[in-house]
Amino acid sequence: MNGVRIKEGGTEFMVPEEHSVKGPGKIRGSVFFNSQMAFNRDVNIMLLKALGRKNMSVADAMSATGARAVRIANEVPDTFVTANDINADAVEYIKQNIELNSLENCVPSNRPLGSLLAEESFDYVDLDPFGSPVPFLHAAISGCRRKGILAVTATDAAPLSGAHRAKCERRYSARPLRGPMCHEAGLRILMGHICRELARLDRGMVPLLSFSADHYFRTYILVENGAAAADRSLSQMGYISYDQTTMERGFASETDKDHKYGPLWGGKLFDRELLSRMSSEGMSDPRRCASILEMWRQEIDSVPLVYSVDEISSFTKRPTPKFEDLMESLRRRGDASRTHLGPVLFKTSLPLEEIVSAYDEAYSAGH
Ligand SMILES: C[S@@+](CC[C@H](N)C(=O)[O-])C[C@H]1O[C@@H](n2cnc3c(N)ncnc32)[C@H](O)[C@@H]1O
């Protein structure tokens, strides 16, 4: 088996010599690896360590080289990990990487995930597919125990963020939108779809951490059992209304059909207490991890309304103020925060007139 040995966080493993380094990644040889996803795996490790569960059974259902599985087994105490992939060549890498780290708490598995998750259930199930997770969600939910955690990556960010509207409607039964809110809406359409899939099986969800990074969306969800939990979660679904010509936007259970996007998850994105316990120490990119933790901790996650400074500038035809001045001026009027979704974006529930006058005030302050 050809390969190169790399170190990520506190773990070393072998990956194919030819591998992706950026973007959604291509399958270059027979086994997939994308070094840019090191950040995604870092977040995974930070979250599971902060969760601090005892005796946690983990299914890395689409493991490829086993990078994620082996990192979890090696870096998160008290875990027992099944590293599964349908591809027999991938399982050769998994076996080698288990051996390289002398892991006794990680086993290889070479099955379609549907069959693994129909026969066994786990405290944590990870879905990390090429593109959309939709075809695998039912199996993942079935294999997730009560109070278990479902972790889902979606690299089909283009349809979810409105670049391919019809594709999003087919896959997620939801209408996406373009513009400054597209990533927030894309993330929430993914979460909304998971919420409805869970509800079909009388299960509900409590989000632990949900974000957009690089070319993908990722959400970690605590799964609760029972019809009441399902109903509670469904009651947090809704629509975003957005009229690009007036900049007016809102979140509602039903809105004007011409400017209606969704359905999507309208509840929280984060568990703040868990976030406060996550630490970047020992991660492969501690600076990026520390800065995203700081960003998430201050980010409003209950208001799904995002604005862009550029949008307000072209709407009002007035020059752009300094971003920090604008944030200060908004915060004096009510709740407002920066968002990890982009450097010129912010979140607030303030009415539009207030936002525009905060914008003017910030511009005057800087001149
Ligand atoms: C994007 S890669 C996973 C990357 C990996 N989690 C990592 O962090 O490097 C997707 C993997 O899913 C596997 N896969 C696709 N369909 C599957 C199925 N039905 N059951 C199990 N594995 C599957 C592919 O063989 C591929 O290795």
Question: Can you describe what's shown?
Answer:
This protein starts with a strand and ends with a helix. With 367 residues, the protein is an alpha/beta fold. The mean pLDDT is 95. A 7-stranded mixed β-sheet has the order 5-4-3-6-7-9-8, sandwiched between helices. A 3-stranded antiparallel β-sheet has the order 11-10-12. A 3-stranded antiparallel β-sheet has the order 13-15-14. It folds into 2 domains: 4-298, Vaccinia Virus protein VP39 (Rossmann fold); 306-365, Phenylalanyl-tRNA Synthetase, Chain B, domain 1 (2-Layer Sandwich). The chain has helices at 38-51, 67-75, 88-100, 113-119, 134-142, 157-160, 165-172, 182-200, 227-234, 272-277, 286-298, 309-316, 323-333, 352-365; strands at residues 4-8, 11-15, 56-60, 79-84, 106-109, 122-127, 144-154, 203-213, 216-225, 237-242, 249-252, 260-265, 306-308, 336-338, 345-348. The protein is built from 14 helices and 15 strands. Helix 5 packs across helix 8, helix 8 runs antiparallel to helix 9 and helix 13 (323-333) crosses helix 14 (352-365). The structure holds S-adenosylmethionine. S-adenosylmethionine is lined by residues 32-33, 37, 41, 61-65, 67-68, 84-87, 90, 112-113, 128-130.
